[in-house]
Amino acid sequence: MSATDSLFQSLLKDEVSTYGQLKKFTAGSVIQQEDSYIKAIPLVLNGSLKVMRTDVDGHEILLYYITPGESCIMSFLGGIHNETSKVKAIVEEDAEILFIPVEKASEWVKKFPEWSDFIFRLYHKRFEELLTAVNAIAFQKLDTRLLQLLKQKSELYQSKEIKVTHQQLADELGTAREAVSRVMKQMENEGLVQLSRNKITLL
User: Fold this and answer.
1) pLDDT tens across 116-174, in order?
2) Residues contacting residue 63 through CB under 8 Å, at least 6 positions apart
3) Which of 8, 48, 147, 190 is 20 to 30 A away from residue 110, measured at CA?
């Protein structure tokens, strides 16, 4: 059963199939740049995306992941108000994405209760994730944030072995690679992880 089958029924599913444009992307592909206008809303069918925010100095930080059956609420809000994107969306795992035209995504809110319910539930989930991200930055030490990120990635990939570099982790946490490497070595000494080239194993 596909993500659209599990989410939507009858007429809405027909319209999603009619107006949606299916595309495949490899890991690392950027599907939405900051400051660009949003023409379509991504609905992830397979794989995953990560949504990043960049500050004026070019530092990035991870806001949340988008997994199968989910979309990007910030793209939806920006698109229906004809505003430029405030975030960047990058393919985390090879992904299959259905792009819904903005005008249809907006029209369906009034036309289909299940689509409206999907959007509001998504908004609620993303709002909680953003609060978690803000709290982590404000109140948690780097080692706690790093361990939480590794656990997120482990759940995402459904594996204890995570293929990621220290630089990628630093980018997602909005910190320096040297700081991540220092904390990772400390975590290895404590028996929490095992480090190897471009791979981290949660113990």
Assistant:
1) 999 999 999 989 988 888 888 888 899 999 999 999 999 988 999 999 999 999 989 98
2) 51, 52, 53, 87, 129, 130, 133
3) 48
34: which 2 tokens? 């900051």
Beta strands at 60-66 and 40-54: parallel, antiparallel or unpaired: antiparallel
Q: Where are the domains of the chain?
A: 3-138, 141-202
Query: Phi/psi at 62 (nearest 5 deg)?
Result: -75, 130
- In this structure, the number of other CB atoms found within 10 A of the CB of residue 159 comes to 12
Domain at 3-138, CATH homologous superfamily: Jelly Rolls (2.60.120.10)
Contacts of 111 (CB under 8 A, 6+ apart): none
| Top CATH class, 141-202 | mainly alpha
Helix axes 113-139, 73-80, angle to 10 degrees: 120
- What pLDDT does 4 receive? 53
Compute CA 22 distance to the chain's CA centroid, rounded to the nearest angstrom.
18
- Identify the three-state secondary structure at position 57: coil
Reported as a single tens digit per residue, the pLDDT across 24-45 is 999 999 999 999 999 999 999 9
**Token match 């369906």: residue?**
108
Q: Which of 132, 140, 150 is nearest to 187 (CA)?
A: 150
* Distance in angstroms (rounded) separating the CA atoms of residues 189 and 105: 50
Dist. CA 109–CA 101, nearest whole Å: 13
Pairwise CA distance, residues 124 & 119, whole Å: 9
